[in-house]
Amino acid sequence: MDTAPPPHARLAALDVVRGVAVLGILLLNIVSFAMPEAAYVNPRAYGGWRGADLAVWAVNFVLFDGKMRGLFSFLFGASMLLVIDRAEAKGEDAASIHYRRMGWLLAFGLAHLWLIWKGDILAHYALVGMLAFGLRDLPVGRMLVLGGLLIAATTVLSATIPAAVFHGQAIEALNRTFGVPSAAEIARELALHRGGYAALFRARFAEYATMPLTMLWLYGPETLAYMLFGMAALRSGMLRGEWPRERYRRWLRACWGIALPVEAAIAMWLIFTRFELFPVALGAWTLTVPVRPLMIAGWICVILLLARPGGALTDRLSAAGRMAFTNYLLTSLVCTTLFYGYGLGWYGHLSRWQLYLVVAALWTAMLLWSKPWLARFRFGPFEWLWRSLARGRLQPLRGPASV
């Protein structure tokens, strides 16, 4: 009979999935690093929307957009639960440990948001993670039901955006995010991001100082749902890699059999309508919400079915996943240096498909450096710093990472 791993054991399956997630999230974030804001949602806004540019947009939209963020959120919930379970197994004060971790994560996130990049997700995870603690002991079934209700609430909330477009409300503001901004607006963003650090910092702080609170309203219910789904996936054995392979295959067929046709149909509709404001607001913002959890669950199945224990790529993905916090932050430091004016100033100079040459280079770097680092050190640099701050004392760093 299968037995649960000891409380201190690493979960190899979780690390591999996290490695894919930290690489995959860059597929979407790269657009935010390199182009005006509206280009993230609407390829007509900037960066090209024909030929190879349209092809990479379509692949990202169907397979990755929102799914990698959601996968990261699943994993955050699962990892949070692991830390809590291990603390309780050792007789430690799990609540104290959890809230210290979330408090320091919030500090990291705010520093990341204000000093480096407007697209931070860490502060949001910290705030939602504080709320999720009280739900950790729910049975798996109730986690899934509550998560489903939160997804339904998110769908209703997100529908206010296309409704506003339909009724002609706040069109100028919504066009800056979902449509094709004016030439003057694009020029303003280009000039800002190609300029010096001081002007960019002032503009970012003025516009995004309270962004974590705004995100809690816009994305909080969905993120909490994903964290619940992640905790349920851990409890059920799905994220532990404990399911029979046929069960993963069955879930993959069911999840992607529903979600992929829906995502593909939305993508074709957006292309057919030439990315007009209302179809983008309805299709890209609202209609994808209820099918996204199915896509994410399917991704977990794909990754665990394809991962070969002991394989060279699997081991490197696992190492990148163990250092996901460090790799995420270093990606921001590298990309802002490449694209912003105080670095190389590439902002707005590459077309959409060309950005993925940068992504390939960064993926290669993450896969190459993470494993050798963990052969010499127990944690990634930022994982070690976070752990030390949360526990109130320096943690041992030298020595190979534990298994």
Automatic annotation (TrEMBL):
InterPro entries recorded: Bact_Transport_Assoc (IPR052529), DUF418 (IPR007349)
Protein's organism: Sphingomonas agrestis
Keywords for the protein's UniProt record, in alphabetical order: Membrane, Transmembrane, Transmembrane helix
Database matches in Pfam families: DUF418 (PF04235)
Domain named DUF418: residues: 234-392
Lineage of producing organism: Bacteria, Pseudomonadati, Pseudomonadota, Alphaproteobacteria, Sphingomonadales
TM spans (from-to): 16-35, 122-138, 145-166, 216-234, 254-272, 284-307, 328-347, 353-369
Full protein name: DUF418 domain-containing protein
